[in-house]
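Suppose a colleague, Dr. K., hands you the sequence of a protein chain of 340 amino acids and asks what its three-dimensional shape might be. Before reaching for any lab equipment, you can write down a predicted structure in token form. Begin with the sequence itself:
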Amino acid sequence: MTDMTVSFLFIVILLLAYFAQQYSEKDTVPRTIHEEVVKERDDAHREITRLQAVISSNEATIVELRTEVDLKQRQIDDQQREIARSQTIISAQVTAIAELRKEVDLKQREIEDLRREIATLKEELEKLRKTEPLEAYLAQSAIERRRILETLRDQLKIDFPDLEVVVSEETDALRFQGDGLFATGSSTLRPDRRAIVETVATRLAQILPCYTLGSHSKWTPECNPGNAIIEALQIEGHTDSTGDFTANLALSTNRANSTFSTILGKSPELVQFLNFRHQPVLSVAGYGQMRPVKDNATKEGRDTNRRVDLRIIMYTPSKSAEIDRIRQVLRGDSPSEVEN
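The predicted structure, expressed as tokens, is then:
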């Protein structure tokens, strides 16, 4: 232990001798310089401390700025989404406006068409006003007849969508295909078609009161503004040219009679509707093959010619003075004045 202590002390002495030998006056500095260096060092430390404080402050500012930037970025993103949504809405509105403009243009064209139609109707009305009263009355009667037939047709189409029924080209008759109501060669109504004829009877009972006289007459200016009177409501039977001429005449008459009987069976009051001469308007006729509406040389033509027509004949006054008497009779003012 003593040897180790002595050895350690020897080493320390050697080191002291070495450092003493290395010491030199040239390695020392004057105090003033030392103090100045120390002052600069302290100033540098303080500057470093200040700069570190500035850096810390700037780093805090940077964090705040980054937070604000993130907030602004989110606001920008929200605004961009709102702009995109607004642009979508605007695009939809632009499309809607374009569609509305198209619709407005269409309506404008329709208005122009209606204006032209009104102008045409005014011209026609002016012509009617200048027309001789008898001609105007006859023209109005023809309009009423067409309206009656079209009303009947439309109502039957509602009740029987598959029924082949048309208004004649002369607009004076409602036309049923013969094979639609009767079997070929038969004058007996098909059981499944009887309802059609009964419906016709019901509809006639609703329409005729406005255009006829008698105890069931119910004329009003609204239902018959032209004061038209039905002269005859004729049930006509027709055949094609196949077979014997006389037999066809009888067949067509029998078909008309069968239709007439079915109508009266459903609405017996129809015989009480009277014309201007106080005669029943309901009548029957059979024409056989004498009045074809199509060429009998084709099957289609023959099918069309085998038919039953419901023909309406309007009363035709012989002179204008009679028109006022018709109005009086329809109103029920002076039925006794009617001449037979």
